[in-house]
Specification:
By secondary structure, the chain is mainly alpha-helical. It contains seven helices and no strands. The chain has helices at about 25-40, 50-75, 75-80, 85-110, 120-130, 135-145, 150-165. Helix 2 crosses helix 4. The protein starts with about 20 loop residues before the first helix and ends with a helix.
């Protein structure tokens, strides 16, 4: 959902990390602060059903991971379980933040008219094929002819870059 009146320009985000921190980590930390600042400046509502569905998915993934680790390491699954209510509360909080962040990014993409060219998609698919040591056709087959998931990922990266580059240090 795009929120047309969202404030995302001129957000203040300090870069308080000490020097020596890798640039990618620094950018991620600053982006987290930018998202927090945007959330503080805007009321971004997420439907409760959507939030609960996302939290339930997180819980399911968590349980699957526990079962897998139990099988791999021979630890009884029962001994690995944590307090379900506590976990669900944590997963709801994480889900809400992820959904709000997604809404922020979609608003930036629409508000700034961000686009991904066919050349950018081809270049990223080729780079991905090389990184994974896979044939390009296999990568294309995974994403489909229109590169739907890859297009969305690149748009979100552009939106994050926009937010990072346009944040006011302070």
């Amino acid at each position: 959902m795009i929120q047309k009146d969202m404030i995302y320009k001129g957000i203040r985000a300090a870069d308080p990390l000490p020097s020596g921190i890798p640039q990618e980590e620094r950018e991620q930390a600053v982006l987290s602060r930018i998202i927090e600042a945007i959330l503080a400046a805007n009321e971004i509502q997420i439907p409760q059903a959507q939030e609960e569905e996302a939290a339930d998915r997180k819980m399911l993934e968590y349980r699957h991971r526990l079962q897998y680790e139990s099988m791999c390491f021979g630890i009884p699954y029962d001994k690995m379980k944590e307090d379900t209510e506590k976990l669900l509360k944590q997963f709801r909080k994480e889900a809400r933040l992820e959904l709000q962040t997604e809404q922020i990014l979609q608003t930036v993409i629409a508000g700034e008219g961000l686009m991904v060219s066919p050349e950018e998609l081809e270049a990223e698919a080729a780079a991905m094929a090389e990184r994974q040591n896979l044939p390009l056709e296999m990568v294309k087959g995974f994403f489909g002819e229109d590169y739907g998931m890859l297009r969305q990922e690149l748009l979100e990266k552009k939106a994050m870059k926009f937010l990072y580059e346009n944040a006011v240090s302070g």
